[in-house]
Structure formats: C-alpha cells, structure tokens
C-alpha cells in the first residue's frame, strides 16, 4: 500500500487501448485493488491532472513505432517519479538501459498480472522489482562493477551524506522527501545490480568513496 495505508494509484501511458483495459482489469481484481488512471498516449496527463499525483507511472517505452523514448523516461526519473517500464521490447540492452536510467522495474508485455501487480506494489513503496525478463538481462550484463548513477542521483546522494536528515536534503534541493527516498532507492538498486549491496547509509558512503562520488575530505568537512 502507499504511505499511510492509502490506496495505491498508478497512471498508465500506452497507445494500445486493449493493453490499458487489460491492466485496468488486473488492477481492479488485485487484493487490495490498485487505482488506475489511463493517460492513453498523452504524456501530458502524467504531469497534470490526476496522473500527476499517481504513486507509479506504467510507461510504454515506444509510443511512436521504432522510437523508444528514453528521454521521457529520464525526465520522469529525474523528477522523482517511480516508473515501471512496460514494453514490447524483450532485448537485454533495452532492459538494462531503462534500469540504468532509473526505472525501478522493467517488464515485457508477455509478463502478465502475476508480475505487473507485484511490480506496481513494490515500486509504489520505492523498491525494485525484478521480473524474469529483467533477471535474464541482468545475468547477461557484463558491464563493469561501477554502477552508472545519473547526475541527479549523485546530487541527492552527496547532499544526503552531508545532511543529518532526508528532510534537510529535500529542503536544500527543493524536492519532496518522497523524491529523496526514490533517488536513494534507485542508487541502492544500481549497486545491487552490479553485486555490491549497499543496504545502509554507511555502506553507501563506503561505495561512494570507493567510486569517487565523494571524497574523504568532503565527508570530513560535512561532519564539522
């Protein structure tokens, strides 16, 4: 459930009415049900109206044939939205790129309610969900062990290391605490995906020092 035990809400962006209708049925049949807002292929409905406050964005990566919109995915992620990419693409490269950009889950449209509904619940809580398609992609990924953090993730991480609370980070960066949590969750997911767990703040500090995200001098200055 969303924070405070409220009904989870999701907004779906997909240009196929049959897909959206199927997802709506799965959400209505879930226990407890999930509130679904259908934005069709209107990306603007994710940013305005009821879709702007949805806990989760279910994002069809390719609203225009043969033109995956990684730029819009990046925009959603950098604004702090929690995204499930729901795509017809089953190739490993696309899945890995979406996770690198900050999606908390990647599912192909062959993966039905048994994966999409749990993914929505996990992502609403700021957690990653690994469906079989993504699990296979991660197993095949031979990229180096340093995760690819976005500039915004690094900014939030550095601010968190220098602050005593996430509330202070939110105030400094003019974002919500929920957005701070989302960015930190994504950083943890990225470290986990390269086999370097960072479940605590101290573990994240250690990883960041090792990867040059922050220096020991900067940490010492922040603690003064």
Quick synopsis:
The protein is of the alpha/beta class and 224 residues long.
What this model shows, in words?
The protein is an alpha/beta fold and 224 residues long. The chain contains eleven helices and five strands; from the N terminus they run E-H-E-H-E-H-E-H-E-H-H-H-H-H-H-H. A five-stranded parallel sheet has the order 2-1-3-4-5, with helices on both faces. The protein is globular, with a radius of gyration of 18 Å. It starts with 8 loop residues before the first strand and ends with a helix. The model has no long low-confidence stretch (mean pLDDT 88).
Query: What share of the residues lie within helices?
Result: 40-55%
The poorly predicted ranges are: none
In terms of DSSP E residues, the strand content is 5-15%
The largest pleated sheet is described as: 5 strands, parallel
- Helix-strand topology string: EHEHEHEHEHHHHHHH
| Rg on CA atoms, Å | 18 Å
Net shape? globular
Total number of beta strands: 5
Cα(first) to Cα(last) distance is 39 Å
Q: Give the averaged pLDDT, no decimals.
A: 88
Estimated structural class: alpha/beta
Can you list the strand order of the major beta sheet?
2-1-3-4-5
- Work out the oligomeric state of the chains in this entry: single chain
Number of helices: 11
